[in-house]
Amino acid sequence: MAGPSTPRSREDQKKRKREQNERDGQAKRLRQKTKTAGKANGQKNGNTDADDLRDGALNVLSQLQKNLTDDQIETELVKLGDTESQEAGWQVSLPMGGRMADIDPIFAENEKYLIVTYNTSLQIYSVAESLLIRRIALPVVQNTYAEKSSAPTIVATRQSQLKPDFLWVACSDGRVWRVNWKKGTGVYDEFRTQSQTALDLSVASIEGQKKTTEVLYVSEGKKHAKGEVVAYSGPDFKQPTAEVLFATKQVDQAIHLLRSSPNGKTIVGATKDGLVVGTLTPESEWEFFTFDTTDIICALDIRVTHSKDNSLVLDLIAGGARGAIYFYDDILRKLQNLNGPKSKREALTSRKFHWHRRAVHSVKWSKDGQYMISGGTENVLVLWQMDTGKKDFLPHLSGSIENIVVSLTGASYAIHLDDNSAIVLSTAEMKPSTYISGIQSAARFTSTPKDLLVKRVWSVSDEVRHPVPAALNPAEPSRLYVCTGTGQQSMLAGEIQSAPLLQSFDMESFRSVSKQALARTQPTDVNITSKGNPISEPRITHVSFSQDGRWLATVDDWQPPKRDLEKVAPEAREQFVRERREIYLKFWSATAGEEHFALSSRINSPHVTSRPETVLALAADHTTNRFATLGDDGTARIWQSKTRQQDGIASKDNAGEVLHSWSCTVAVGLGGNVGADALTTTGETTGERSGSLCFSEDGSTLFVAFGHSNDGGIYVIDTKTGEIRSTLENMWKGHIRRLQVLSPYIITLSDDLRVFDVVADELQYGLQLPSGRNATAVKEFSHLAVDRKSRTFAVVVPGGQASQLAVFKPEEPALLCVRRIPHRITSLVSTGSSSGFVAVDDAAQLWSVAEASDPAAVALSRPLEDMQLDGEPVAADVVLDDAIEDEEMASDNEQETEAANGEEMDLDDDDAQLAVINRQKLAELFDAAPAFAMPSVEDMFYKVTGLLATKPLGS
Questions:
Q1: Span 602-658, pLDDT tens digits
Q2: Mean pLDDT, to the nearest integer, of 249-255?
Q3: CB neighbours (10 Å) of residue 5?
């Protein structure tokens, strides 16, 4: 589209065209609706019907020009939806997964279960099989759509001392819940702390003269107030008795870490510049001691033993924010002696262990007290021998260590890693026996990283700054591929959000299958510069699978951080960064049965002028294996593969597969927008331009939206010849987020939503969308995806820290489904082989949106409790694997009795045998499909009996 001679005349001409098109489109649309309504109602007065349509909808083009508030727009959007049809039709699943909180996991029932605290739920896993047994949602977020600079977060989870089936969960806004994790009956018995704050929680049981009482120690602290340790007790905790045990001398000196002995007679806490030690005297009075430390304490553990004279011995280890670990042996006796005779006074000295480069994230005592275990950002588990200071290492973990837990028997370590995973290690062999992993995409920080408790030369963003590229594989619809990094902190550190890895996640089993580096990474070795800055890694900006799932196309982008350009002249820094920018288009072969992709071709700077230009969009053809890219150089390119040959013979790899190479077959310049360098003549910058593209359903046409905010044009390109067939004006406004095609409709998501009928050459309808207070967030986290199976499309618009999701049909603006998600959606994907949509939010949760009656809909895995597979066997002659060891450990008398019973049974039936069923086999059988898509009862009966049946004995 050639531009006029001057910028002013060009803008005037576009404005006249836009106004004329709006009037024509509105009139044409209203005439069509008037004619249809008149035929249906048998009325001749078309003006009345047009007035009714205009008054009852927000979808007419003229309504797009109204200045409505976000609340008014949301109200109108909800009115468009039919509640009854939503309940019977499309449904949004409960969220699954989440981000593991910085809270110690809990071993339960003799290390049979592992309880992991997430930012929004409690999840109970089987240690033996790594299967999710139960998920208990926690009502953490209350106001789900407003701007929340300080949203409440879970700060502590502790197991009850008197009733191990219960957990105490504390929230930062002072709410405390008691949860029955074994029954999964939900959250109840809630009470609030007296200050309506909570920083940490510790649970103890104190023995009285008549009975043992459970006491909750809560550290509280408001802004501009003193920090306190408050003890809560009561018969049912609905209205507990509160007693302030300790208060700091200064304001804004809260106790952010709190530990107590199991009997509740010793309390240890940490402030920003010291430690607090308290003990219960024989007179039932509390005595507290405070002393300063040389570092901010960010990890704490205590060990309580008794000496030969039966006096209490308190050994304390504390991890500092600068990497040191401080060991205080018998600290309580030394503190008490400070008030005694001079002959007994001892200096409060500590033994210092220093290996970690940054903060010590977690430190714990071993069972026997001979070792301590620590971890931090180095991805290394360190075991310290206390007597000699000798260190043993378990290196190359998949992420930074956040939490370490030693089981009660000392036989296992539970380690929570920064990449949203947890492992259980045996202390004897240091080999993992359990692995738990969720979605590892970038998530919102709910607390300050421990490394930033002291001033650093680098910083970490609290929020996700860019959408997370994701895709579903058409060949394996249950596999979700999400771009991620080497850890939460490494992804959000620095100027640019990094994501060089691709995680493969199985939604049916809800497990991470694999993780592959698609760009340059610095996982563990030398990942910081000489000045202490983390080395920046590339970010994968686009991913897309081919129509048969055999090829994967990715785009990764990297540029040198500005902090490394201190010696470059200020006026040349921006140009220096642009010239050294690295942008790669890569094509990967996805071989069936292989977990990892093989790189087939790499295109350096697929869009380039005098410098590499941003790749704005990547799209796959739905009919054949080819891709299209749109660059900020104003060019659309189509990429196809061809067989790689040498001397006329097809080249093959070691497995005998034919090798392919990818190249550009069609390049189309988009009118006067060709070349970013040309913008300097008009005084415009490339950063103001946006674009998106999509193939038609038959692959014959490529639709490209590209330009500045005032352009609004879509180019219709013939994919064979590269000829621009036509240009559609006034199709989008502002910043174009996404363009999709659902024949014969073109759907654009920009500052508003528009559905255009290409055949009728008219606007079908348009919807005004909430603008939000954060324009950047609205631009980055607005999503559009189409489902060609159900002929629907989904739209996500952010608002505050939440998002609003809606499902439409292109024929009419009635909402099929509308749901307010209490988190910001970072990814929205669909696949051609199954129906529905999958969304990922900034809490690393998965949401599925599907039609309830569609058996081909996308389904997420469910906990075993939801499938009724978490209970005991229902048949007396069925023995699960878990019971085999118990049977072998039976006493001699029991064995004789069982043998006698066995002989009696042999008299009745010589062929009777015990059937052994693996619990995982049952899980795979009942979790093969959602409830509405399960096989018939008869088929399920035969499958279960097939597991029970035993092979006949040989003759």
A1: 999 999 988 899 999 999 999 999 999 999 999 999 999 998 888 778 788 777 788
A2: 89
A3: 7
Q: How far is residue 436's CA from residue 130's CA, in Å, rounded to a whole number?
A: 6
Answer yes or no: are the C-beta atoms of 472 and 512 closer than 8 Å.
no
pLDDT at residue 695 in the model:
96
Three-state DSSP class for 738?
A: strand
* CATH superfamily for domain 443-525+538-560+618-851: YVTN repeat-like/Quinoprotein amine dehydrogenase (2.130.10.10)
pTM, 2 dp: 0.81
Query: For residue 226, what are its two tokens?
Result: 């003193």
Q: Tell me, what's the pLDDT at 24? A: 45
d(CA 652, CA 420): 39
The secondary element (H helix, E strand) that includes residue 574 is helix 573-579
Which two three-digit tokens encode residue 35? Answer: 């004619």
Contact present, 218 and 198 (Cβ < 8 Å): yes
| Pairing, β 915-917 against β 878-880 | parallel
| In the chain, domain spans | 1-56, 443-525+538-560+618-851, 878-948
Angle at 829 between CA 828 and CA 834, to 5 degrees: 140
Q: Are 824 and 781 in contact (CB under 8 A)?
A: yes
**Of 142 and 589, more confident:** 589
Tell me if 287 sits within 8 A of 279, measured CB to CB.
yes
Q: Which residues contact 395 (CB under 8 A, 6 or more apart)?
A: 379, 380, 524
Strand 200-207 vs strand 371-375: parallel, antiparallel, or unpaired?
unpaired
Q: Which amino acid is at 85?
A: S
420-424, 560-564, 705-709: segment of lowest average pLDDT: 560-564
Question: Could you tell me if 363 and 404 are in contact, meaning their C-beta atoms sit under 8 angstroms apart?
Answer: yes
pLDDT at 490: 83
Do residues 75 and 92 make contact, with C-beta atoms less than 8 angstroms apart? no
Spatial CA neighbour of 706 closest among 684, 736, 726:
736
For residue 101, pLDDT beyond 90: yes
Which H/E stretch holds residue 74? helix 70-80
Which of the residue ranges 436-445, 651-660, 675-684, 707-716 would you say has the lowest mean pLDDT?
A: 675-684
- Between the alpha carbon of residue 169 and those of residues 121, 134, 140, 625, 704, the distances in Å are 10, 16, 11, 51, 51
Taking the C-alpha atoms of residue 50 and residue 61, their distance in angstroms, rounded to an integer, is: 13
CA dist., res. 563 & res. 584, Å (int): 23
Q: What's residue 488's pLDDT? A: 86
Whole-angstrom distance, CA of residue 433 vs CA of residue 453: 34
Is residue 882 classed as helix, strand or coil in its secondary structure? helix
Report CA Rg, the chain.
32
How far apart (Å, rounded) are the C-alpha atoms in residues 140 and 446? 12
Contact assessment for residue 358 and residue 451, using Cβ atoms and an 8 Å cutoff: yes
Cβ(200)–Cβ(218) under 8 Å?
Answer: yes
Helix (H) or strand (E) holding 479: strand 476-484
Whole-angstrom distance, CA of residue 246 vs CA of residue 280: 12
Compute the C-alpha angle 592/597/602, nearest 5°. Answer: 130
DSSP 768-829: E----S-HHHHHHS-EEEEETTTTEEEEEEEETTEEEEEEEETTEEEEEEEEEESS-EEEEE
**Could you give the angle at the alpha carbon of 843 between the alpha carbons of 834 and 803, nearest 5°?**
70
Q: In DSSP terms, which residues pair with 585 in a beta bridge?
A: 555, 603
Four-point Cα dihedral 890, 895, 899, 902, nearest 10: -20
Q: Do 815 and 809 contact (CB within 8 A), yes or no?
A: no
**Closest-CA residue to 200 (of 365, 455, 447, 463):** 447
Q: Of the segments 415-424, 439-448, 585-594, 805-814, which one has the largest average pLDDT value?
A: 415-424
